[in-house]
């Protein structure tokens, strides 16, 4: 089995916004399946897992996929009310 750090992250939204009740899904190309963390701009953790249902509206939210290796590696995607800015 090939193992690899996450190199890219893709976030999709059920409604294309970051409003209360929207469901966001985070996917990555890491193998084995990475751990997912959703955070606000200030680093406050909102949820851990690949799917989040927003309990309030957000302007900016970040999904980070972290490889489960001895030396952690990660990739992230930042969403600005569904305008996407990719970062690693």
Structure overview:
The protein is mainly β and 88 residues long. It has one domain: Sandwich (Immunoglobulin-like). It is built from no helices and 8 strands. It has strands spanning 9-13, 23-28, 35-39, 45-48, 51-53, 60-66, 74-80, 83-87. The protein has a 5-stranded antiparallel beta sheet, with no helix packed on it. It is elongated, with a radius of gyration of 13 Å. The protein starts with 8 loop residues before the first strand and ends with a strand. Residues 82-88 have low confidence and may be disordered.
In a few lines, what is going on in this structure?
With 88 residues, the protein is mainly beta. Helix content is 0%, strand content 48%. The chain has no helices and eight strands.
Strand order of the largest sheet: 4-3-6-7-8
By secondary-structure content and strand pairing, the structural class works out as: mainly beta
Mean pLDDT: 83
Give the CATH architecture: Sandwich
- Binned, the helix content reads under 10%
Principal-axis shape = elongated
- Relative strand content: over 45%
Characterize the largest beta sheet: strand count, sense, and whether it forms a barrel: 5 strands, antiparallel
Distance between the termini: 24 Å
Give the C-level CATH assignment. Mainly Beta
């Amino acid at each position: 089995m090939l193992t690899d750090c996450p190199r890219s992250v893709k976030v999709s939204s059920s409604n294309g916004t970051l409003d209360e009740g929207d469901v966001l899904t985070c996917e990555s190309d890491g193998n084995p399946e990475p751990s997912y963390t959703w955070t606000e701009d200030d680093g406050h953790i909102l949820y851990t897992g690949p799917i989040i249902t927003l309990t309030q509206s957000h302007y900016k939210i970040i999904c980070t996929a972290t490889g489960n290796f001895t030396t952690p590696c990660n990739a992230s995607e930042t969403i600005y009310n569904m305008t996407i800015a990719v970062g690693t």
